[in-house]
Design goal:
- 43% of the residues lie in helices and 14% in strands.
- The protein is α+β, with helices and mostly antiparallel strands.
- It folds into four domains: 84 residues; 87 residues, no CATH class; 45 residues; 116 residues, no CATH class.
- A hairpin with a 2-residue loop joins strand 12 and strand 13.
């Protein structure tokens, strides 16, 4: 009931989309719950942004957008909520079970959790190559069990440092041995005003959280990537520079209504690559990120894909439906509109040719 009342009276534009059955109702309800703490005038920032995106975008992207707009609408309130949540951080142990096992439960910031997980992975990889240090484990030890053993090694930092090839004491570690961090942060000009950035695989964060995310890692600054540039190569594989620009333009895979926003996708050729064809078939003009399942659907199930421009794609399903996927989401198209998009200017050229043959002036 609270969600419906909020949508009807506080989010009128989103409510209008709901009444037209233009979106999933549960997504609209989640937006209402996320924005409930905002004031009467502040909530319009969320309503305007969500109403424009909720029809074409996937639910995960809509909810990320809503969270970012909630922060933008009232940064002081978000800072207060963040401070309150930081005071709730904890690490605790469960009771020992019948075989002497316990659970470690922690509620920490996302950045701290990622660092701990990455260190556990490094220690597990090192232990896998030094089985003499873990003689009690069976030969067919699974990854989860190995990670659990690696987690236990964190209680002995001196052993971990020696295992990973570091100095015996943390104070003797040089700057060169500090861990490297790769964090993809997407900033808009508004971030300088509202302090909101989107960190891949985490979501919207304020800039202070981004700084804490890096901790004491060694940071290498790289130049801004110009998405207006493009590259063509003769090889079949897409270069990393092309994959990087394509991901920044699309944020995730470009199958209609897809929700994957990870970089772990295949880079497909919308126009099939021909080993005997002309040079320059691979590049920004012919690159579409797709999850493995959707990649196979395009290859084997009759889905057809055309790239209209950088980050702009036109799909035809096996049932004859047309969908356009661009930076604003997925859009339904009729057959005539889709044909004009795929063949720009072709009808005008045909009419001009007919006029010339008949001696007419257009």
């Amino acid at each position: 009931m609270a969600d419906v009342l909020d949508l009807r009276h506080r989010l009128p534009r989103t409510w209008a989309v709901v009444m037209e059955l233009g979106c999933e109702i549960w997504v609209a309800r989640k937006v209402a719950a996320l924005s409930r703490g905002l004031g009467q005038f502040q909530v319009h920032v969320v309503d305007d942004a969500v109403a424009d995106a909720i029809v074409g975008e996937s639910p995960s992207r809509v909810l990320d957008l809503a969270r970012a707009k909630v922060i933008e609408a009232d940064p002081e309130a978000y800072a207060a909520r963040l401070d309150a949540e930081l005071r709730k951080r904890f690490v605790s142990l469960s009771r020992t079970d019948d075989v002497g096992m316990r659970h470690v439960v922690a509620h920490v910031e996302a950045g701290a959790a990622v660092w701990v997980d990455a260190l556990v992975e490094r220690v597990a990889d090192a232990l896998a190559t030094r089985r003499d240090l873990i003689p009690d484990l069976p030969d067919d030890v699974g990854r989860d069990e190995l990670r659990a053993v690696a987690f236990g090694w964190l209680a002995h930092p001196e052993d971990v440092l020696e295992l990973l090839g570091g100095s015996p004491a943390p104070s003797e570690c040089s700057a060169r041995r500090r861990p490297k961090a790769v964090v993809y942060v997407h900033l808009h000009q508004a971030a300088l005003e509202h302090g909101v950035a989107r960190v891949e695989e985490i979501g919207p964060l304020v800039l202070d959280q981004v700084r804490r995310l890096l901790g004491h890692a060694r940071v290498d600054l790289k130049p801004v990537i110009d998405l207006n540039t493009g590259t063509r190569v003769n090889a079949y594989e897409h270069p990393e520079s092309v994959q990087e620009r394509t991901h920044l333009r699309t944020v995730g895979e470009v199958f209609p209504h897809a929700c994957r926003i990870s970089r772990h996708v295949d880079t497909d050729h919308p126009k099939e690559w021909d080993p005997h064809g002309p040079p320059g078939q691979t590049g920004d003009h012919n690159a579409a990120p797709l999850g493995r399942t959707h990649h196979r659907a395009k290859t084997h199930l009759g889905y057809r894909l055309s790239q209209l421009g950088p980050g702009d794609y036109l799909w035809r399903t096996p049932h004859g439906l047309r969908r356009r996927v661009d930076a604003t989401g997925t859009h339904e198209l009729d057959e005539v509109t889709a044909w004009h998009l795929e063949h720009p200017g072709e009808l005008d050229r045909a009419l001009e040719q007919i006029a010339r043959e008949r001696g007419l002036v257009l």
